[in-house]
Amino acid sequence: MPLLEYRKGGAPLLSAADSWIFVADDQPVPASGDVVVSLARLSDAALSGRSGKVGVRLESTDELDALIPQLAKVSLVAVNFPKFGDGRGYSKARLLRERHAFAGEIRAIGEVLSDQLFFMMRCGFDTFALLDGKDVQAALAAFKDFSVTYQAATDEARPLYRRVQR
Amino acid sequence: MYKYDEYDRKIVMERAEQFARQVERRVSGDITELQFKPLRLQNGLYMQLQAYMLRVAIPYGLLSSAQLRMLAHISRKYDKGYGHFTTRQNIQYNWPKLPEVPDLLRDLASVEMHAIQTSGNCIRNITSDQFAGIARDELEDPRPIAEIMRQWSTFHPEFAYLPRKFKIAITGTPDHDRAAVRVHDIGVRLVKNDKGVVGCQILVGGGLGRTPVIAKTIREWLPKEDLLSYLESILRVYNQYGDRKDKFKARIKILVNTLGVEEFTRRVEEEWAHIKDGAMKLTQAEIDRVSKFFEPPAYKALEASDNLLASYRMSKDRNFGRWVTHNVEQHKVPGYSAVTISLKVHPTPPGDCSDTQMDAIAQMSDDYSFGEVVVTHAQNLVLPHVETARLPELYERLAKLDLAAANIDLISDIISCPGLDYCDLANARSIPIALDLQERFESLDYQHDIGELNIKMSGCINACGHHHVGHIGLLGINKRGEEAYQVLLGGSPSDDASLGKIIGPAIAPEKVVDAVQRMVDKYLKIRTSEDERFLDCYRRVGVEPFKEAAYATA
């Protein structure tokens, strides 16, 4: 599945490499490497004393508040979109960035299509696991669908009426 | 009215191009119909029984004559020569072809219009009072705040995929709510606090649909500067905690009821405490900038015309007299009146307007009303600033176009959804029943005698025709494979908001009109005086006499 990235100050691009291994709950945690586990497994003892980084996979039904006490040990939050139309992940990402000052990677996974990318980027996502079989060039272009925004969000701390003289 | 600047213009242009690309991807098969659905929906495009239906946003109902001419042009070029004005103050086209929709959106963008967020699970078109800015009883013009909310909600990145659709209405006339704010997901009432400062009262969780609820007040008064951050807090709580499993439990009203209004309010206030003093706080400069667009037009200095209006009502031309009585409202500026043009003219379906009528109304708005037209949530059109002395000539012109029906708020001014003739969701037809009712009560003498009586009809439980808040509500259902209609009595969307109650078993289509007439005749017999409206009479005597009348066999 193509991984796109769009980091502040950079341009949207296709990621060259991805070090993260997504570990299912019924699989053992590998001894080394960067691993992503479920929220329930984040307190697992097997995660301490390893060499790689730790990431967490948030389901749309997970409460963000349950993650916050453990946020310091996490380098990546993968926010799952079980369906295109399930928008809970947008609030989660904004709160992680704007309220909890999370500076690691926030990745959109699940049903990720080019049409959500602009909104996801605005809410603080910086990597995007595009569904297989989708047009990558069209997806990269979709980050630039709009050149003007009205609201304050993660990408733009001020609403338009504080940004420009209208 | 509000004029786009370069920023507003860019957004709607870029949207038209984005949607053109999305249509291309659909046509090429890059995305499936299932994946295309939420995209087209956010653009107001529905798949209906026979074709796509496109809904165009008319923010708070306000149109310029140039915009109305474009709507007429669009109905000719992309549709069958008419449009349908809706209860959300929007217009719908029933016959556009998918590949042509991008061009249609470009045409709209050229007159500062769009179809953004007119459907889908997002924040919909913001609605308001059709007499905003001109009503004598108004505290403050709500349109600047409505426009500020429109911009805030347009492509809000966090709230594009809510659990369900989300409707906001605002009124600036706290003593006379013409915007039905109590049956919206969020209702905003401009009110004064104890220091006399105008701010926002916030109501949440009202709505119709299959679980009708009257909204609850969660904040008595809020400075205008804090409105957007407060709305954002409500939406954020809803986006995270609203039910996403069952679409019939997904509206915010269910969340408010499930959590309880205290707990819901606590969560909103807790969220708001984090963001209230942030960058979202509205600046006075922005409020002033937007307010400037709503400054009054260049009215002439005229004598008060209350006496002239009174004499018109008694005119020898009884049709004109009745038209002034029912379709003309007093204006806050001396010498001016607001005219409601009825789009409830038998045999045209309620809310439908032809291209020639739209063009003619645009011309009349230029000739009489500073080029402004307002769509009402009762599916009629208003010319908001007409010199009272020119009402007779305007009436003549309207009459020639079959647009002078003197029936505003009378029994034939029926609110109706499109029903089974057009809609995929409907269980029963709406338009034919509405037309039969209009025909039965066609005599103006009879209607006039009955007085204010709002019939609202929906072809299914989703309640697009607002049947819960009709004085008489009619709901089409499917009863063992047959169309049938439930009758509700006692609803009102205004300050005395109440939900109608079903009076008994559903009635067969061919018996609806008779049942309504028997109830109306009963009312005429038992009302205390002409001043007691049907609704008041029902509230006084209760359902029994009406029920008896409705189910009596002739």
Describe, in plain words, how this protein is organized in 3D.
The complex is a heterodimer of chains A (166) and B (554). The radius of gyration of chain A is 16 Å and the shape is globular. In chain A, helix 3 (114-122) packs parallel to helix 4. Chain A has a single domain (3-163), classed as TIM Barrel. In chain A, 22% of the residues lie in helices and 20% in strands. With 166 residues, chain A is α/β, with parallel strands linked by helices. An eight-stranded mixed β-sheet of chain A has the order 2-1-8-7-6-5-4-3, covered by helices on one side. Chain B folds into four domains: 6-109, Alpha-Beta Complex (Sulfite Reductase Hemoprotein, domain 2), CATH 3.90.480.20; 134-292, Sulfite Reductase Hemoprotein, domain 1, CATH 3.30.413.10; 306-400, Sulfite Reductase Hemoprotein, domain 2 (Alpha-Beta Complex), CATH 3.90.480; 415-551, Sulfite Reductase Hemoprotein, domain 1 (2-Layer Sandwich), CATH 3.30.413. In chain B, strands 1-2-5-4-13 form a five-stranded antiparallel β-sheet. Helices cover 37% and strands 17% of the residues of chain B. In chain B, 55% of the residues are buried. The mean pLDDT of chain B is 94.
